[in-house]
Design a protein that fits this description.
Elements (H helix, E strand, L loop, with lengths): L2 H28 L2 H17 L7 H25 L21 H7 L2 H7 L4 H12 L4 H8 L3 H18 L7 H17 L2 H7 E10 L11 E2 L1 H17 L3 E7 L2 E7 L5 E10 L2 E8 L14 H15 L1
Parallel strand pairs: 1-6
Antiparallel strand pairs: 1-2, 3-4, 4-5, 5-6
Helix pairs in contact: 1-2, 1-3, 2-3, 3-7, 6-8, 7-8, 9-10, 9-11, 10-11
InterPro entries: ECF_Sigma-70_Domain, NTF2-like_dom_sf, RNA_pol_sigma-70_dom, RNA_pol_sigma-70_ECF, RNA_pol_sigma70_r2, RNA_pol_sigma70_r4_t2, RNA_pol_sigma_r2, RNA_pol_sigma_r3/r4-like
Subunit structure: Interacts transiently with the RNA polymerase catalytic core formed by RpoA, RpoB, RpoC and RpoZ (2 alpha, 1 beta, 1 beta' and 1 omega subunit) to form the RNA polymerase holoenzyme that can initiate transcription.
Family: Belongs to the sigma-70 factor family. ECF subfamily.
Length: 315
């Protein structure tokens, strides 16, 4: 094997070993699976184009993917200001980066609630917070990644922590109990059990949908256990009647489900926030642009029209 071929193979192996970490950094900064994957791919191209092997491959790759993500986020924030309706992160069914000793912490950091809270931060604050608080990078590495002094990075972290502490999401500590509650919720949903659903919802529960103007969605957030329970108990049996299925699944590290149309195409993804033995929030991602990485995407409008026909026939 030639030296160049050996070097190329070595770089590929080093990169692939770190790919899960790179994606997880980029996703937490961007809230987008597609944009995170693009940032990781561009990082690979820059790694292979580098004529000299970095002293620390991990530091080089992490810094590169962070800088790319910051640049993408700056332009994405302008688009999000014009977004139609609530903006939610693209649903992530499995985080490729795993650390058994910090699995619960990592799951909470990728939750919809945590990612929405990160939206309050500037791109630099967000990157520093993710690198330090989620992945425990040292300040010399962070400073290199964001091209700021260590002192500046410490100040950025202080500001980020202040914003995050004000609304830091809390989740059910006992993950077994949380998953059991979610299972009861989806059972009650399938049965159209209003009372069963209401008993599992917090009094001030909120339910909102992200369609981005490209799919039918709730006109506004639905608030309160009674309102949410009655709406769910009415709509899901009708959806089931036209062949829509619900498959419970972890969504962004929290209990959730993926709904599919009669042909098995992805209709939406639902994420639940659970605390104190009750569901606090229900977030539904319907925008087809945010579902393509999960598989073939359903025509949500066609499902909506079929549902309307069912309702007309029931009158």
């Amino acid at each position: 094997m030639s030296t160049s071929t050996s070097t190329s193979t070595g770089r590929t192996e080093e990169f692939e070993e770190l790919r899960p970490l790179l994606f997880s950094i980029a996703y937490r900064i961007l809230g987008s699976v597609g944009e995170a994957e693009d940032a990781v791919q561009e990082t690979w191209l820059r790694f292979t184009a580098s004529p000299v092997r970095p002293r620390s491959v991990k530091a080089f790759l992490s810094a590169t993917v962070t800088r790319l993500s910051i640049d993408v986020l700056r332009s994405a924030r302008v688009r999000r200001e014009a977004y139609v309706g609530p903006w939610f992160p693209e649903p992530l069914l499995a985080d490729p980066y795993q650390d058994p000793e910090r699995s619960a912490e990592l799951a909470d950091s990728v939750s919809m609630a945590a990612l929405l809270l990160l939206e309050r931060l500037s791109p630099l604050e967000r990157a520093v917070f993710v690198l330090r608080e989620v992945f425990d990078f040292g300040f010399p590495e962070i400073a290199e990644a964001v091209d700021r002094s260590e002192a500046a990075c410490r100040q950025l972290l202080v500001r980020a922590r202040r914003h995050m502490t004000e609304g830091r999401p809390r989740f059910e500590a006992d993950r077994t109990e949380r998953d059991a509650l979610a299972a009861r919720f989806f059972d009650a949903l399938r049965e159209g059990d209003v009372l069963g659903l209401r008993d599992l919802l917090a009094a001030d529960v909120s339910m909102a949908g992200d369609g981005g103007g490209k799919a039918p969605q709730l006109a506004r957030s639905v608030l309160g256990a009674e309102n949410v329970a009655r709406l769910l108990a009415t709509v899901f049996p009708q959806l089931a009647g036209i062949g829509v299925t619900c498959a419970p699944h972890q969504v962004n590290g929290q209990p959730g489900a993926v709904f599919r149309d009669p042909e098995g195409r992805v209709l939406n993804a639902v994420a639940l926030d659970i605390l104190d033995g009750r569901i606090q929030a229900i977030r539904i991602v319907v925008n087809p642009d945010k579902l393509g990485h999960l598989g073939p995407v359903a025509d949500a409008w066609a499902v909506h029209h079929a549902l309307r026909e069912v309702r007309r026939g029931a009158r």
